[in-house]
Amino acid sequence: MTIRRETEKDFPEIYDLVKIAFQTAKVSNGKEQDFVVKLRNSEDYIPELALVAEDEAGKLIGHIMLTKTYIFNDSTKFETLLLAPLSVALEYRNRGIGSALVKESFRLAKDLGYKSVILVGDPAYYTRFGFKPSINFNIKNNENIPDEYVMACELVPNALQGISGTIEFMRA
Length: 172
Fold this sequence. Notes:
Layout: E1 2-5, H1 11-23, H2 32-40, E2 50-54, E3 60-72, E4 77-88, H3 97-111, E5 116-120, H4 123-126, E6 132-133, E7 139-141, E8 150-154, E9 165-168
Parallel strand pairs: 4-5, 7-9
Antiparallel strand pairs: 1-2, 2-3, 3-4, 3-9, 5-8, 6-8
């Protein structure tokens, strides 16, 4: 398996990969593939943090995106990253591909100076990477998503200490 930055020629295959991957997900709104396009076309897109995994034959088997988002409170906004979505082709799941994508994206994010990551996901999966409920950091969400599914991870120790507010997943 190879992990590399996504390229424009990958976009149609990524769209299909994400769509099919979320058809078998525990929780899905069926629009994750369109969310990828929306994020990619936003000012929050970070090309260096949009990665694909491919097998020996060059077939895309996984994808991850980290994009900029913000925690707002009355007086300030704090930049953080949003991990959304993480996709692995069904026939390649439970082989460490998702974990490899998360770890590589975190390594690159730290190298670029980012300090924290927020996501909406399954606690049973994401706690292994250091994610905790964002409410533990006094960070709420603006989507009425149950607190246990909105999680934060500090890439740098104590990066979220003293930060509080509301995470806005998709600003209008």
